[in-house]
Amino acid sequence: MNTLKMRTDEDLVALYAKGDNAAFDVLLSRYKSSIYSYIFFIVHNKDLAEDIFQETFVKVIMTIKQGRYVENGKFKAWITRIAHNLIIDNYRQERSENTISNDEVEVDLFNNIKLCDGTVEDSMVRHQVLLDVKKLVQHLPDSQREVLEMRYYQDLSFKEIADITGVSINTALGRMRYAILNMRRLAEENQIELSMA
After folding, report:
1. Count of C-beta atoms within a 10 Å radius of residue 83
2. Where is 63: in which H helix or E strand?
3. Long-range CB pairs of 190-196, under 8 A, 24+ apart, other chains included
4. Cα separation, 20 vs 11, whole angstroms
5. Which of 183, 197, 185 is nearest to 132 (CA)?
6. What is the pTM of this model?
């Protein structure tokens, strides 16, 4: 197993395709944390994140076993793109069923140790600003929202975002720019103050 840990992603994929299950275990341990975090930060729901995470790795297994993996040198981007597409499929399904809720995630700022130095008023203002930002993000077009979430919540580079979404870096940058402009416009139109000062 230790020798497998030193192998590249591509070597591990090739070994797994030939029947070496330990090779897949190494790939799973290498990426499970980052892929799960990526999914969770977008869906904000532990159970849903776990479902999509499992479905992602089932797709990875099936694709490799069927000999259809062709993303040489880009395993992480490839697996993240699979997760990303499954998240989009889930949102589309929820939207068609009219079950999307902006209230899924509650932020309990009053019991957050990180905020103990501030006043209750500071906490209330911060809480309201975060809720307002969340609402504004939900009103962005899907392509702009996904780039914004990947950049700010996942801390991904624009190159990584471009690889995952299958667009050019310039397109990803443009979507981010329009997302920010649209959020400013929406805030002004709705007289929302986004300052914590």
Report:
1. 25
2. helix 46-65
3. 192/132, 192/136, 193/129, 194/129, 194/132, 194/133, 195/129, 196/122, 196/125, 196/126, 196/129
4. 11
5. 183
6. 0.53
Which domains, ranges and CATH numbers included, belong to the chain? Answer: 2-96 (1.10.1740.10), 109-189 (1.10.10.10)
> What is the per-residue pLDDT across 27-65, written as a single tens digit (0 to 9) for each?
999 999 999 999 998 888 999 999 999 999 999 999 998
Q: What angle do CA 43, 177, 83 make, to 5 degrees?
A: 25
Nearest Cα to Cα of residue 157 among 88, 77, 72: 77
Give the whole-angstrom CA distance, residue 44 versus residue 144. 18
Quick one: how many helices (H) and strands (E) in the chain? 9, 0
Cα-flanking dihedrals φ and ψ of residue 164, to 5°?
-70, -45
